[in-house]
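This section describes the prediction task in plain terms. A model, or a person checking by hand, is given the sequence of a single protein chain and must write out its three-dimensional structure as a string of tokens. No templates, partner chains or ligands are provided. The sample shown here is typical of the held-out split.
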Amino acid sequence: MLKTGSRLSIFPLPGALLLPRAYLPLHIFEPRYRALVSDSLARDRRIAMIQPRPGGEGSPKGPGLFEVGCVGKIAQVEALEDGRFNLILEGLTRFRMLRELDANTAFRQVEASFEEFAEDEEDAPPLPSVMRAEIEREARAFAEARGYAIDWDSVERLDDESLVNGMTQAIPFDIATKQALLEASDVPMRADLLVDFLRFGAAGDEETLQ
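The expected answer:
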């Protein structure tokens, strides 16, 4: 487990969630984040994803940030000839930002705490079959209401944690909704929230969607 007080290099990106044991593909093209990736590859291959607060008060370094994000490890990387990167991050553990550091790098860095997320390093237990069925039912209703084409055979083959986390990452909920799902204490709690948000979305509640 990472130690509290660890320094993390962050990639603030609205709507892009990383979760433990989930994967997030990224295309890196801005110079400051190309520098972040190069630095990460030279050190520990870690990058911390965190969402900016919409409309929040920022700092000279950038927009204000939510307090909870997720650390990922670069699992795959493709370095392009023009300096851009395609990479896949594998989620390790969530963190709570303690403070932003006064770093003289192009990218932002924070000091982080991990104690409250110790369970992130353990596989989540299976969901009750009733909950699994409810997620799939509400997901089908949501997809039908929104006109999304889904490969349901592939969905049914996912384990419970991959199903919940995959939907949390892929569905275009708004930033606050995504953050609530990220901060859910565990996978069962995230599943409960996901069902509620899918139900609202299927009913036409635009506030839960971007």
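For orientation: The chain has a mean pLDDT of 92.
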